[in-house]
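Deliverable D2.4 — example input (structure tokens):
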């Protein structure tokens, strides 16, 4: 009987010890979970705190760009910076006008020549002239002038096409000289503002009687703003100028090639004196 009671007591002690260990392990796991959650929250808060100033700085930089430009414009001197800005506005206006005109002057010469040849075959010269009247661009105008003198012979047509082609070339190049003027004028205005600014800086040094590095550096910085602005304006306008000249060269080459093809068509149809 004593052995039975001893056996039961040993089993009870072992069961109590196992339950105590399980409870201790549960507490340890819960504590570890709480610690992990706290660490994750702290890390997230640190990341948010570090990212927030960066985002605020980006917003400030993006919103203050126009303020920086305005500040530099005022520091460079309102008078000379206004002239540089005027050169930019006029140059851009002329460039946009030329780009629109040149794009509208572009003609599909192959399609035009095919339509003229069909018109000559079916309706004669009057039908071909009607096709030219209904087509936009300098190539169609040259063709119309040539067809209008077909009764005088192919040689007269050729001379008429060459002469009127020169006129159309002049119309295409109209306004480019003014764009070139703005390209050259903008840096010159900037240099003039820089020179006058340097003169003012040296006058300030002379009036103070001593050389202050801060004053000299500030005056030189302000004086150079006009030069930088003039160079930027010149570079922007130079891009538009080169585009216009390349477009004109392309249109002129098409005019010359199409004129030769027109004379071949006229000879083919025996439309000569």
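Example output (designed residues):
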């Amino acid at each position: 009987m004593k052995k039975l009671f001893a056996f039961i007591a040993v089993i009870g002690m072992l069961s109590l010890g196992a339950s105590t260990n399980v409870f201790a392990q549960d507490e340890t796991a819960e504590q570890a979970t709480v610690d992990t959650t706290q660490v994750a929250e702290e890390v997230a808060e640190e990341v948010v705190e570090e990212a927030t100033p960066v985002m605020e700085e980006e917003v400030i930089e993006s919103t203050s760009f126009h303020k920086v430009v305005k500040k530099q414009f005022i520091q460079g001197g309102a008078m000379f910076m206004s002239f540089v800005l005027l050169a930019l506005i006029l140059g851009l206006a002329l460039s946009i006008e030329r780009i629109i005109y040149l794009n509208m002057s572009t003609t599909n010469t192959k399609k035009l020549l095919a339509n003229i040849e069909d018109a000559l075959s079916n309706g004669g010269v009057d039908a071909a002239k009607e096709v030219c009247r209904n087509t936009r661009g300098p190539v169609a105008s040259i063709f119309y002038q040539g067809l209008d003198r077909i009764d005088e012979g192919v040689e007269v047509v050729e001379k008429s096409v060459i002469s009127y082609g020169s006129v159309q070339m002049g119309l295409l190049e109209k306004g480019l000289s003014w764009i070139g003027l703005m390209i050259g004028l903008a840096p010159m205005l900037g240099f003039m503002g820089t020179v006058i600014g340097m003169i003012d800086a040296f006058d300030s040094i002379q009036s103070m009687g001593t050389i202050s590095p801060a004053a000299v550096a500030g005056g030189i910085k302000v004086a150079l703003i006009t030069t930088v602005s003039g160079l930027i304006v010149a570079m922007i306008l130079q891009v538009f100028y080169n585009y216009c000249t390349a477009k004109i060269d392309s249109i002129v080459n098409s005019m010359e090639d199409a004129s030769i093809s027109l004379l071949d068509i006229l000879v083919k149809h025996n439309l000569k004196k």
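The longest helix spans residues 2-63.
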